[in-house]
């Protein structure tokens, strides 16, 4: 059973993130940015449309669009 967009959340595995910024460049709503350590961070969770472009474009598989609860 697939989840609705309301049930999805962006999860970032910062230990896998190399800080390349590809996900930030492809985000249509510009809700991603860098934290103080040069890793990707969700800066504006409310405006995220959960399109999945960040997950699709991340070469390091550091971003996952998944359920709110642990899967």
From TrEMBL:
PROSITE patterns: 4FE4S_FER_1, 4FE4S_FER_2. Transmembrane segments: none annotated. The keyword Methyltransferase does not apply. GO terms for molecular function: iron-sulfur cluster binding; metal ion binding. The keyword Lyase does not apply. Keywords: Iron, Iron-sulfur, Metal-binding. InterPro entries: 4Fe4S_Fe-S-bd (IPR017896), 4Fe4S_Fe_S_CS (IPR017900). Pfam families: Fer4_10. Residues 8-37, 38-68 form the 4Fe-4S ferredoxin-type domain. This is 2-oxoglutarate ferredoxin oxidoreductase subunit delta.
